[in-house]
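Below sits my pick:
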Amino acid sequence: MNVAAIRQGISYVTNSKGEKTALQLDLTNEAVQEMVEDLIDTLDVIERRSEPTLLFEEVKNEILLNRS
């Protein structure tokens, strides 16, 4: 991940006092897109961390059984 490319795609929004109030991401910037996708993936993992885990074989067998 190229940090310089990411920085080019990030802008701060400031209020009249010059205080940073928001972050603006340029989603046409490929490096920023990748970073946002990684962040969303990480949030998904955190959100689902308390879910029970399944063995790969169980998941595979369930998929094979449900095929049309």
